[in-house]
Amino acid sequence: MTAACRQTAFAGLDPPDDWRPTRYAQRPGRLELGLDSLPGIGAALRRKLGRLGLRTVADVLSHRPRRYEPAVSELPIAALREGEEVVVSGRVLTVARRRARGRRTRVVARVDDGTAAISVTWFNQPWLADRLQPGATVRLRGKLGRFGFEPRAYDLGEARATADFAPVYPAAEEIPLAAVRRVVEAALPFASHVPDPLPAALRERQGLALKRDAVVALHRPRDLAEAEAARQRLAFEELLVLQVGIGRRAAERARTLAPALGQPGELVRRYREQLPFALTPYQEQAIREIDADLARTVPMQRLLQGDVGSGKTVVALYALLRAVEHGRQGALMAPTETLAEQHFLTLADRCGELGVRLALLTSSSRKRQREDALAADIVVGTHALIQEGVALRDLAVAVVDEQHRFGVEQRAALAAGRAPHVLHMTATPIPRTLALTVYGDLAVSEIAQPPASRKPVVTSWITQERSSEAYTRLRRLLRQGRQAYVVCPLIEAAETSLARAAEDEAERLRRGELRGFRVGCLHGRLKAAERRELMARFKAHELDVLVATTVIEVGVDVPNATVMIVQEADRFGLAQLHQLRGRVGRGAEQSYCLLVSRPGEELSESAQARLRALCATSDGFELAEADLELRGGGTLLGTRQSGLSDLRFAHLLRDRPLLELARAAAPSIGPGPVQDAADALVAGVEPEDLA
Ligand code: ADP
Ligand code: MG
To answer: Which terminal residue of the chain has fewer beta carbons within 10 Å of its beta carbon, N or C?
Structure first.
């Protein structure tokens, strides 16, 4: 009898709590071991894996294959034809390391299998030159291409994994596939320590495999069906945790009270009069829905979704003013300080005219400023500050910009049984029904159409070699009186080095491609006043071009700016590029967005797919679906803070049936690991952080 069979026979029983662990007991602690405890993984590889978030055995075990490649046939070298993926094996004759274009290296080996010899070329894996000794046997999976045989995977010596049905990992975009597979193989024996959080009765009822068996099958399936069954087992658990979390949150909310704000009053009437435009029907509809929520003592939880520039902020300010006219406070929470500052600037004029006290609260605010902020009518700050740092006098309405944690209520207020009404704004639209299913009790308002009809931004993608063409086009448009943004590469660096990189780039362009034009530089290190002045000059057309970091993602609105060049666009996420592109196309003139990427060979499959999607459509909804498709379930809402970023296995579009199953099962889940994970999710804490 195998271990798996024995387990099935016991599936109806969870061991009593007082059972002592035996010598064979699982030791889940071992899953938290670092990768240095696995054999044969050097420090350099560990560092690279660490940068991809793979630090522990558990990380590796839950690193989900992006796809599985089918088995391919093995051919004699003499029978090779171009373009077809095959496996060849042979003996290494010679090995040489060459320099390729740019900073790339090339390792070239001659390989002979008795029928013929062939040149084999690996890019950017210089260490291979040492590992491939003349005389060694190799097995190579790849295609005949421009540089001879170009392997995508290989086995050295006796290993034989390459030709078979095998997983392909996301990490293999940065690290050779063979190395990733080696790490997974080394981690797999630990799978026996993976505990199963699902109650045995549920597992039995739904016919679900043990988690540890699913983990093994995920990495070493015999066929696609087995891989998919394993994925579904893991996805079900994730969705169950999510659904239990939603249930917990709804129950918590039912116990808290928010101030009922009655009917709209005089302040919002003046606000409407003061707006230089009439609200669109979608905005009016959203406002009606918000008013209905605010009239009740059940705390509002509403998602306000609409594309960049669709007029969400105008609606959000309305909701905040509804708090103010009742003598209470409103808070606008942004994901970063820079975005908080921009929101502050956007709201400042309107609030000034209405006599509403608006305050900005950042981590650099002094004690005095903090105290003032607490006394203000509307406070703008970062999520962290407002949620945990300060106790607002009388918060009635909170607007949360682009953050999708479940727990946004102020902890202190919650403890006292009070909660504000919360409006979540997002520019990454998600299908309405999906939002309802995922969030359960989150209501959705949708601004489906921007106020003015905008022409779609003509978007094209070119690689760096041809970037001079982009600047030629840019200069032509500048000479016609248009203005432009140049977005600097997204590098992972402190705000200060980002700022410096942007300044350097602006200087380079002033001397080079943009000589003779007036070039300003916008980044997160500028003081609020400096930034305001810079924006004012750009708006007044005293500057032709604004070189910027992603600071311009929101809040910048200059209709005459009709061109955007995004450098190293392949480094950006789809949602972020869409946001950036929303800065142009705001006037009557045709606008252009030029995405300049690194050379094609250096781009990952998903980077290419992102750039293609952007060129193909400017519809935020379609892009959200494309993003979902590319990234799976994990990053549905496009931000790393998303509580949903923990979904690795579930695909929210395709797994609707699983989601329904999880929804049905959720109410029966009692205290235990699933509920603990759900509570952690609701509180916005990773389960590991609780340990
Ligand atoms: P979002 O927050 O969705 O990006 P905003 O509320 O910032 O959108 O609005 C984008 C721009 O459109 C702003 O300049 C705003 O003043 C303007 N705007 C908003 N609503 C309307 C409307 N109903 N008619 C005309 N312009 C509008
Ligand atoms: Mg806005």
So the answer is: N
Long-range contacts of 669-674 (CB under 8 A, 24+ apart): 669/199, 669/202, 669/240, 669/244, 670/199, 672/197, 672/199, 673/195, 673/197, 674/197, 674/198, 674/199, 674/237, 674/240, 674/241, 674/244
Contacts of 99-107 spanning 24+ positions with Cβ under 8 A = 102/599, 106/147, 107/132
Task: Give me ligand 2 centre to Cα 555, in Å.
Answer: 5
The CA-to-CA distance between both ends of the chain, in Å, stands at: 36
- The Cα–Cα gap between 403 and 392 comes to 20
Among left, alpha and beta (phi > 0; psi -120 to 50; other), residue 481 is left
Q: Looking at 188-261, which runs of residues are DSSP E strands?
A: none
For the entire predicted model, the pTM comes to 0.62
The per-residue b/e assignment along 426-454, b for 16 or more CB within 10 angstroms, e otherwise, is: bbbbbbeebbebbbbebbbbbbebbbeeb
Which residues, in sequence order, are bridge partners of residue 485? 546, 564
In DSSP terms, 380 is beta-bridged to: 332, 360
Whether the CB-CB separation of 663 and 673 falls below 8 Å is answered with no
pLDDT tens track for 568-584: 999 888 878 888 898 89
**What does each C-alpha distance from 497 to 512, 524, 549 come to in angstroms?**
22, 10, 11
575, two tokens? 């949602």
The one-character DSSP state at 602 is G
Question: Which residues are 108's β-sheet partners?
Answer: 96, 121
Q: Which residues surround ligand 2, an ion (CB under 5 A)?
A: 313
Q: pLDDT of 546-568, one tens digit each?
A: 999 877 755 567 889 999 999 99
**CA 267 to ligand 1 center in whole angstroms:** 20
Rounded-to-integer distance, Cα 439 and Cα 618, Å: 26
Tokens read off for 23: 């010598």
Cβ proximity of 400 and 420 under 8 Å: no
Which of 205, 198, 66 has its CA nearest to residue 674? 198
